[in-house]
Design a protein that fits this description.
5-stranded mixed beta sheet, single chain, 2 domains, 7 helices, globular, Immunoglobulin-like, Maltoporin, Chain A, 22-stranded antiparallel barrel, 760 residues
Length: 760
């Protein structure tokens, strides 16, 4: 009897619970155009969920009554969340429309056209790298962070002081224009310094345009543009700090503070401090493996609220750096002497830039301006190099839409002052230096024509007048086709670029070592013609995976190319315009794969052929790889608030500068790779800690990279009557001191640990 009563009670309670359950039936679509197949649907904080069927329909059954959050998720689309109530045994009927996520698919970009637009609408192919992506491999500056960008390589130019530049598709640093918020304030003497000292907490994103952009940006935008976009005061936390150190005793500190100057004026201050004072010589050549640095940078940005949301932003930055590398026993008392070799660089630099929208209610007219001053006091052994550079820039742009045409008219003026203690500004017939002053006024116009929802045409032309070289003409054409969903995009770009060179401000090899600088002729401006074909394809798979492929074919041909000749005479660097062609051509592929399970994969490969043709001779360009690849693999453990990032790059062999036929160093570098792992743990909304290992494979270049490191002043080198080094018992390979044989950093494996603090 008792057993029967128990069975009855169980059946009764089960029936009662059934009576307290409900169901949900519904339909989901993508942008109200097609079924939302395989959308993930679930009740938050429960185990109840399902995936939509191929026709977009779904069912959730046996839901205990109560209040729930119904969540719909699919990669590449905005997450939907709706509060529902299950009151009694009933079936709710619901329908939902999923919208594509702008954050994943359509970032806002400005670099290609000088106007804000979504990436998918831009007729110019632009790559965008967010601050979060750069933080996946923490570095003290953007210069190092760009090593994880496909087709872009930070190149060290000296084994001693570790200065460098940015290569894009095999083209050297002087061909890359570096912008901050669209302002060309980084150039010539200061290229590497423009990418250091910007607090990472102030970086919104980095936009990269590969290929000539001289139609919009003028000289130097020959190989491409790197545009660092900073955050506006309104979009940042009240206080943020990012501090980390490494097992090599490198310490980097970023601090930002948002404050108000008045009700209508918001301001943002950022401070970056980097310090490394630990000489290390792991390769045993008696030279520091990396240069010691003491750098501070102060950044301040002001944003003024104006009527009708007109723009007025003003930015300022000051940077000071004391950097040295050399023999392990060097200290400042040996600076400029010939007893202990060292390369010591004192850099002082200020920058001012801003954007003001004119108060004309019916028109969009902007006045942009920038100015900077750069002072460099350097010694390379006993050679002293002192230089001053000042640049002023102003630009007026008028954006006007007329029917299908979206015009941008512009007028620009750039003034460059340069003075140093070398032959670059010295005049034999004068009593002192004759500083170089270059005036560069220019006008440009571009017309973006929206032919229909699938086709866009961009036409542009620029005319500059260089006060030394005369008129320079730069046209360009861009065409874009996209499918209705914008998941397939094809772009065609063609244009030209130009550049006026100053080797003393751009080529570190001209200032260091024992080589003599020789100019065979007065250097003429370099010019280039470029063609680029770009294709983008996006997919969403049934397994809630987003895949994005971005492929390009590029071809650039130079005339008047200025190439330093290290090989004709091992004791000289000979500069002249190339009487022939220099060609950079290749293909690149970027890919992104994102899983809702927490995996993210990003990477890319570039195959290129960069050659120099003169007469019957054709050779590969020095310090240029034929293959490069990058990757970033990320997994997030949601329950632990823990993110793991594995990043790396790989480079194929590149031809290296040798000192003669007897030089026993390898003519080509080996295959090499820098790989890193980083773990990031979020403690709460304010605190985050991270750490990991850099250069996991502990790769370093050969220990004999610096030629005759034991005799940096060439005291024991014997020369013939033509100045060529002779082979002797203590110098069998006829070498002189030379630190330009460099393709990778000497810094080996190291650990790092840091934290971030954010107060909103």
């Amino acid at each position: 009897m008792q057993r029967l009563i128990t069975i009855v009670l169980i059946l009764t309670s089960t029936f009662a619970l059934r009576a307290q359950e409900g169901n949900i039936k519904g339909y989901v679509s993508f942008d109200n155009t097609k079924p939302g197949s395989y959308v993930n649907i679930y009740l938050e904080n429960t185990s109840i969920g399902c995936s939509a069927k191929a026709d977009g329909s779904f069912e959730l059954n046996n839901i205990p009554y109560g209040s729930y959050n119904l969540v719909l998720k699919f990669i590449g689309f905005e997450t939907l969340k709706e509060k529902i109530e299950i009151n009694e045994q009933e079936t709710l009927t619901m329908s939902f429309i999923m919208k594509e996520s702008d954050l994943l698919l359509d970032e806002v970009v400005i670099s290609g056209t000088m106007k804000e637009m979504t990436k998918s609408n831009s007729p110019v192919p632009i790559e965008v790298y967010t601050a979060k992506y750069l933080e996946n491999n923490k570095n003290p500056s953007i210069f190092e962070s760009l090593q994880n960008v496909n087709g872009v390589r930070p190149q060290l130019n000296c084994n001693v002081c570790n200065t460098g530049d940015i290569h894009i598709n095999g083209l050297e640093g002087p061909y890359t224009m570096v912008l901050i918020d669209g302002m060309p304030i980084v150039s010539g003497l200061s290229t590497v310094y423009g990418l250091t000292g910007i607090p990472s907490s102030l970086i919104e994103r980095v936009e990269i345009v590969k290929g000539p952009a001289s139609t919009l940006y003028g000289s130097e935008a020959v190989g491409g543009v790197v545009n660092v976009i900073t955050k506006k005061p309104i979009n940042v936390p009240l206080v943020s700090a990012d501090v980390y150190t490494t097992t090599w005793a490198e310490t980097n500190t970023d601090i930002s503070l948002k404050y108000k100057l008045s009700k209508k004026v918001d301001a943002l201050m950022g401070i970056n401090y980097f310090n490394y004072q630990n000489p290390i010589d792991n390769n045993g050549d008696n030279f520091t493996d990396i240069s010691l640095q003491d750098r501070i940078s102060v950044f301040n940005q002001i944003s003024v609220k104006r009527k009708q949301n007109r723009m007025f932003n003003l930015g300022m930055r000051y940077i000071y750096e004391d950097r040295w590398g050399g023999e392990m026993q060097w200290d400042p008392e040996y600076r400029g002497g010939d007893s202990v070799y060292g390369e010591s660089i004192y850099t002082s630099r200020w920058e001012l830039f801003g954007n003001y929208q004119l108060p004309i209610s019916t028109e969009n007219i902007n006045f942009q301006f920038s100015a900077n001053g750069h002072h460099q006091n350097s010694v390379y052994g006993s050679d002293i190099y002192i230089a001053d550079q000042k640049i002023a820039f102003s630009q007026l742009t008028w954006n006007k839409k007329i029917g299908l045409h979206d015009f941008l008219f512009g007028a620009a003026y750039r003034y460059t002052y340069f003075d140093d203690n070398t032959g670059a500004t010295f005049q034999r017939d004068s009593s002192g230096n004759n500083p170089s002053e270059v005036h560069l006024p220019g006008i440009f116009v571009q017309d973006q024509i929206t032919l229909n929802e699938f086709n866009t045409l961009l036409l542009g032309v620029r005319m500059d007048n260089n006060s030394i070289h005369g008129n320079i003409f730069s046209p360009r054409l861009n065409y874009k086709w996209n499918s209705k969903s914008k998941r397939t995009i094809l772009r065609l770009s063609a244009g030209n670029g130009f550049r006026v060179a100053n080797v003393f401000t751009e080529d570190h090899a001209a200032l260091t070592g024992a080589r003599e600088i020789v100019f065979e002729e007065e250097l003429r401006p370099e010019e280039s013609i470029n063609v680029n074909i770009n294709a983008v394809q996006k997919w969403y798979t049934k397994k809630e995976t987003f895949i994005n492929l971005d492929a390009s074919i590029f071809y650039t041909q130079f005339s008047n190319r200025i190439i330093p000749d290290y090989e004709t005479n091992p004791n000289q660097i000979i500069y002249a315009n190339l009487n022939g062609n220099a060609i950079s051509q290749g293909v690149s592929l970027n890919f992104d794969v994102v899983y809702t399970s927490g995996w993210k994969l990003m990477g890319g490969v570039t195959l290129m052929d960069v050659t120099i043709e003169e007469g019957d001779q054709k050779m590969n360009q020095l310090l240029t790889e034929n293959f490069s690849g990058v990757w970033s693999i990320e997994y997030t453990f949601q329950d632990l608030n823990l993110k793991v990032n594995y990043t790396g790059n790989v480079y194929g062999p590149m031809r290296l500068p040798l000192l003669g036929e007897l030089d026993d160093r390898a003519e080509y570098s080996p295959w090499w790779s820098l790989q890193n792992i980083q773990l990031t743990k979020s403690i709460n909304r304010k605190w985050e800690i991270y750490g990991g290992v850099k250069n996991l494979l502990n790769f370093t270049p050969p220990s004999n990279s610096i030629a005759r490191a034991n005799d940096p002043f060439d005291r024991e080198v014997q020369f013939d009557q033509n100045g060529n080094a002779l082979s002797t018992p203590n110098n069998p390979n006829a070498l002189t001191f030379d630190p330009t044989y460099v393709f990778a950093p000497n810094q080996g494996i190291r650990g790092f640990l840091g934290f971030r603090y954010t107060l909103n």
